Amino acid sequence: MIRILGVHRGVAALLAALVFGAALVVSALPRMVESSLDAAARSVIGSAPPATASLGVQFTRRFDLTPLRTTAEVAEADTAWRALLPPALREVADPAPLFEITAPPMLVNEQTHRYLTLKWASGADRRVRYVEGGPPGPGSGTRLEVAVPAVAATEMSIKTGDTLRLGELTAKVTGLFEPARPADRFWAFEPELTYVIRSRVPLATEDDLTVTALTDGDSLAGAELPLVYRWIVTPEPDRITAGNAQDVLAATEEFGRRLGRQDLELVLSTGFDRLLKEYLDRLAVTRALITVFLTGLAVVCLGTTALAVLLLVRRVQGDLLLMRARGASLARVVRACGGAVVLAAVPAAVAGQVAAGFVPGAPTAAARLGPAALAAGTVAIACAAVALGQSATWRSPRRRAHGRLTGSAARRIVVEILVLVVAVASLHLLRTRGLGTGDAFLALAPVLLALAVALAVLRAGPAVIHLAFRVAARRSAAVPFLGLAAARAVPGAALPVLTLLPAVALAAYGMATAGGLEAAQRQTAWERTGAEIRVERAQGIPPETVEQIVHAPGVRAVVPAAVGTTVAEVGFEGRPATVVAVDLDAYRRLVAGSPLRLPELPERPARATGALVSHDLSAMRSFEIGWPARMTVTPAGTVDAMPGVRAGDGALIVLPAAPDHVNTLLIAGDAGAVRPLLPSGARMTTVAGALAEITGTPLTAALTAALRVAAVALAAYALAAVAIALTGGAARRAEDLGLLRALGLTRRQAGLITVLEAAPLLVLTAVAGLAAGLAMPALLGAGIDLSAYAGGRPGALAAGAALPVLPAALAGALAAGVSAVALAGAYLGGSRGHSG
After folding, report:
1. Which InterPro entries would you find in this protein's record (predicted)?
2. Residues 211, 216, 217, CA angle at the centre, nearest 5°?
């Protein structure tokens, strides 16, 4: 075995390099992705508002119920609810307790639009600093003591020492407080203690102001008031990973069921389960798509490795025949060659797995088993090739029945039909069910589709080459005739085609997907911002500031706008609406060349007096609005959306004229020149910032990186497969060229014959693989929906979407580059073969 490796050390080194590279990629890529998936889990929970990412157990006490009359009983209830947590949820929950008691808003001193909410929250006394007065003490009967946020006291005209009448209760203000540490997570759960809540009912002319005051917990719990008790369980983001997210979600649902079986009427209020479901949906798609490319990469790596193994077997065929002639058994010959492959492949697979261990991330099943399976497959191919080759050499050849298919040909047809049927079935299921269902069979659809196309090329390729040969036979030039005649007789073309075409197809698909994803992300960033730079200020932007920005160096254009909310006076209660006032012609010139598409203006004369409205208002002849000024709106066209504006469930009204009161600036230019000129309270967003926010999420970064790594690896192994296939026929080709040398064959002609021998099937395979890869986004349809990675833009990469030019060009360059490098190598190899 060692002697075989020593004699054929070049091929053995090539085999070891291929196994090492395949083991490294197959083991490192899942680890890298898994690390990013864990980071994504932490990011999803950590970046969400704490009140949304927590579990709130809520109980509403009516007048006729008497439980939970002290804060001690509330603390005991917190311990009881936490005991109901399933183990998976208990492991990720923060043990620190947080619970509160809240009374409904009550009218203050019978003043219209002025309300006070009483609250007690555990630990609030340690997290406030009194700027005036002191904390509230215990109350007596209907008299309570309260402390009011300092920021709200000024707005509500409340001073220390005031006595507030709250219906049948009276509340004495003992102090004014502010957060001791505003960054404390406690204030994310109790934000109403830091500001005045403003709200306005439809058709009202004045805001309702509500301030939340702290009071003594036992006094509030003992008052004859309808109270809301809330116990908060906060999951720790660092404890949630891609591996335990599904168990945590199931535990959250089980916790809700356990609460429903308690004596009290408890309600579990949380957005934690929704966050986990959204994350798990994206996680399933990410893992499934990575599985698609890992499967394709495994097929291509195994095919390329098989070509190297067959090359080694051909090189040692003479040695093995000599061993058989000297009396060695078939098993001994197989062990000799298989052992040599073991010595080359197993250490390389181990080295690849060890090198992958330096990539951060937990090892997955694929990372652990992939290199071992690859090494085992390589050894199995070598043993099978030697056994079949030796058996075919030593047994007498069978006759082929004239006009009938041999058993091997019939089996090949059956296998091809089976692959085609399975590919079509998987494609149909993928389009109808989606990739994120967790079905491993669906992840094989792209690979099976590529293999089906490869089988079609194997069937149609000889016919195409034969047609080219017949054309060349009618011409007087000998080189095309000899090259195409050699192409017709190339043996063993199946394995190179079955390796090269999936590699090119999946690499092209990966490039197209990554490019399409980037284009969709850019589109979403522009739609979120509405312009290269967007400046907003609720109080309005002074005219002098607008002038300064217009004339600032680096600013190319500025379009002022006004964006606000109002109530469209339609129906009985009106319709909430978002109003956008902007000069649409100037806006269209500002964003020319960007991906944005603005709504079309109506034709004159309606253009001068009419407005664009959403479809729910388009049937109205006219209606009134109160912002940006009291006016009558006459619908003259419809609008679905405006860039940078979120209308939500409300209506949308676009006034196509420059506003008098400006609170938004749409700018084209340098953000650095605009930022120093902004007044206080202004908020600036840019397309670059929005794009960084979309692409910076760990899941998106993991998917994009994995697509690019897989595409590069597939391209490298495609080139290696072609090189090995050409090398495998080098001896036969040198012999044929040697016979032609005596007839005067030149060096250039020898190279051209070699190129013509390899080019037809190689070009057909590359073109078919490129076409299959670029067609896959449309063929797979909505089965692979990546809109969540494009900022949640629906249909971002749906079937039928325009394929970006740059990714298609890169995929074409990949196929052309593989073909060109292979043909250049063939030309040089043929020339050297002739000269030798």
Report:
1. ABC3_permease_C (IPR003838)
2. 100
Phi (first) and psi of residue 113, to 5 degrees: 70, 15
- Please state, in angstroms and rounded to a whole number, the distance separating the CA atoms of residues 737 and 296: 37
Alpha-carbon distance of 815 to 809, in angstroms, equals: 10
Verify cis geometry, omega within 30 degrees of 0, for the bond prior to 628.
Answer: yes
The amino acid occupying position 457 is V
Alpha-carbon distance 279 to 241, whole Å? 11
CA distance 187 to 182: 7
- CB-CB contact of 266 with 259 (8 Å): yes
Cα separation, 228 vs 697, in Å, equals 37
Single-letter amino acid code for the residue at 392: A
pLDDT confidence of residue 89: 93
Residues of the chain with pLDDT under 50: 396-403, 605-608, 798-802, 834-836
CA dist 666 and 645 (Å) reads 12
DSSP-H helix ranges across 84-139: 87-92
Residue type, 544: E
Tokens representing 388? 């079949």
| DSSP symbols for 690-710 | HHHHHHTSHHHHHHHHHHHHH
Phi, psi angles (nearest 5°) of residue 555 = -100, 120
Instruction: Give dist(CA 421, CA 423) in Å, integer.
Output: 5
Place of tokens 């006291």: 153
Tell me which residue of 451, 101, 154 sits closest to 298, measured CA to CA.
451
The pLDDT value recorded for residue 178 is 92
- Residues 268 and 254 sit within 8 Å (Cβ to Cβ): no
pLDDT, position 102: 92
Residues near 609 by Cβ (< 8 Å), separated by ≥ 6?
634, 636
Tokens 């860039």: give the residue: 643
Of 683, 697, 707, nearest in space to 773 by CA: 707
Residue 491: how many other CB atoms lie within 10 Å: 8
- Using only the alpha carbons of the chain, give its radius of gyration: 37
Task: Evaluate whether 34 touches 361 at the Cβ level (below 8 Å).
Answer: yes
Helical (H) or strand (E) element with 49: none
Contact by Cβ (8 Å): 176, 132 = yes
Vertex 226: Cα angle to 222 and 229 (nearest 5)? 75
Checking phi first, is residue 626 left (phi over 0); if not, alpha (psi -120 to 50) or beta?
A: alpha
Element (H, E) at 624: strand 623-625
How confident is the model at residue 834, as a pLDDT? 47
Q: Amino acid identity of 311?
A: L
The ranges assigned to domains in the chain are 1-45+297-397, 55-279, 405-523+695-836, 538-681
Rounded CA separation 830/824 (Å) = 10
The first and second tokens of residue 142, run together, are 């209907």
Residue-level pLDDT at 556 = 93
User: Residue 47 to residues 43, 53, 98, 691: CA-CA distances in angstroms?
Assistant: 6, 9, 20, 17
Terminal-to-terminal C-alpha distance of the chain: 31
Nearest to 523 by CA among 818, 795, 161: 795
Specify whether the CB–CB gap between 578 and 653 falls below 8 A.
yes
> Would you tell me how many other CB atoms lie within 10 Å of the CB of residue 675?
13
Query: Which pLDDT belongs to residue 483?
Result: 65
pLDDT at 799: 37
- Look at the alpha carbons of 392, 393, 396, 400 in this order and tell me if their dihedral is positive or negative: positive
Inter-residue contact 790 to 517 (CB < 8 Å): yes
Kindly give, in sequence order, each residue whose CB lies less than 8 Å from that of residue 749, ignoring residues fewer than 6 positions away.
479
Q: Which residues contact 280 (CB under 8 A, 6 or more apart)?
A: 245, 246, 249
